[in-house]
Amino acid sequence: MKSFRESIGGLRVTVLGAGKSGVASTRLLKKLGADVFLSEAKRIPLYLQEELKRLGVRFEEGGHSDRILNSDLIVPCPGVPLTNPWITRARAIGIPVMGELELGYRFVSSPIIAVTGTNGKSTVVSWIAHIMRKDGAIACGNIGNPLTSQNGAKNPLVVEVSSFQLETIIDFRPRVALILNLDQDHFDRHVTFEAYRKAKARIFENQREEDHLILNYDDPNVRPLDALARPKVHYFSIEKPVKGAYVERGRIFLEEGKKLELLDTKSLALFGAHNLQNALASALASYLMGTPREEIREGLQSFRGLPHRLEYVGEIDGVKFVNDSKGTNPHAVLWALKSIGEPVILIMGGEDKGLDFSPLREIIGERVKKLILIGESRNKLRAVFEGTVELSEAENLEEAVELAFREAERGDVVLLSPGCSSFDMFKNYKERGERFKDAVHRLGKNQL
Predict the structure, then answer these.
(1) Whole-prediction pTM value?
(2) Least confident of 5-14, 63-72, 236-245
(3) Among 1.10.10.60, 3.90.190.20, 2.40.128.50, 3.40.640.10, what is the CATH number of 311-446?
């Protein structure tokens, strides 16, 4: 019987969605000799249409048609839910469905470290790749470079995986899997927290006894997953010594058969309890992959973080500005507020994902001087926080920055941590973060 790798040539494959992962899947499938049809609900940019024509890929745009079902295999982008009517119809008539993550996995031979969780995924993926850079480790996956773009890679792959991607895995099996934390997110797709948690837990579904699973011991939604695990389980904790990585008396330790001291927590360039957890997870994963202690220590100290994640933007007249545009759920806002000791003027709002913001009332009441709301979720957020904190609204992000600065006093921090998606006003969280930084820089020039 032919393997999937051998039989892909000549198969009729429909790729649903022309985003990054869809385009990467199309390129890989065409390279492997498949007959590819790309279907996109929106318009396909002209430059991409030209590439598809050069590759000999048939495509449709501005909507889907029954041509999708004239296939031997369907590869949906992560943004296409399994409840999509075309996926439902395909499955009903026996057409197999394979996500981009699974497709990419079938055509790489590199060892894989896979990272998931509600928050911190991109930071940990980048941090591990930074620590393991002498091994040529590559950060990829949901961080922006699809796994299907790594065909033929020989170096270790550090892969960010989302719950959307994990819904469509079949055999995906990382050597090391990490679950950083779990809190409410993406209820617009998963509906319930348990469904979301179950999707995340699929990251270790195919692991074997010789593989490794790293869990956050301090997270009550993560730690119990060890009961379901077949691989070797390791933990990280900022609260107590555990088998794995932990903090004790202000120093980071690894304990896997023997106790290894790494460094003082004050040596880390990133601040906040959540980044301390990220450091522990990154150190432990690197260690389990065989990285020497000295390289781990150096990599922990020299990593400077990623844009839009508690990114210090600057200071104007004693008021600091921090960009946390990647904070797209309540859990991220909570950690951001816990990480800042000064009084905060908080800018929140955007596209609602159906999440419950009421758990933030206590910390916002304690830490936030003023809350400025933007975006389509303004009314929902006002209803949640009315009476908890002084509220204002702004028509756009630039207006919110100006209002925050007028209300701020020396020693305050203006924090953008939206708790919502960006798609009501921006292309993505990166554009939102850049607009915030631009607004701050313009404000600084006007104060000169």
Answers:
(1) 0.89
(2) 5-14
(3) 3.90.190.20
Closest CA to 189 of 84, 74, 75: 84
Whole-angstrom Cα Rg for the chain: 23
- Give the separation between CA 314 and CA 447, rounded to whole angstroms: 13
Superfamily of domain 102-302: Mur-like, catalytic domain (3.40.1190.10)
CA distance linking residue 321 with residue 193, whole number of Å: 33
Q: What angle do CA 311, 309, 168 make, to 5 degrees?
A: 160
pLDDT tens digits along 127-158: 999 999 999 999 999 998 999 999 878 899 99
Please write down the HEC assignment for all residues of 21-55.
Answer: HHHHHHHHHHHCCCEEEEECCCCCCHHHHHHHHHH
Separation CA 302–CA 196 (nearest Å):
34
**Burial profile 155-180: b = 16 or more Cβ within 10 angstroms, e = fewer:** ebbbbbbbbbbbbbbbebbbbbbbbb
When pLDDT is averaged across residues 373-381 and rounded to a whole number, the result is: 97
Would you say how long the chain is, in residues? Answer: 448
Q: Which helix (H) or strand (E) holds 187?
A: helix 187-190
In this prediction, residue 64 has a pLDDT band, given cuts at 50, 70 and 90, of: very high
Answer yes or no: are the C-beta atoms of 58 and 136 closer than 8 Å. no
Q: Which residues contact 214 (CB under 8 A, 6 or more apart)?
A: 176, 177, 178, 179, 233, 234, 235, 236, 244, 281, 284, 285, 288
Assign 1 a pLDDT band (cuts: 50, 70, 90).
Answer: very low
Q: What is the Cα–Cα distance from 416 to 347, expressed in whole angstroms?
A: 5
Query: Which of 46, 1, 3, 52 shows the shortest CA–CA distance to 23?
Result: 52
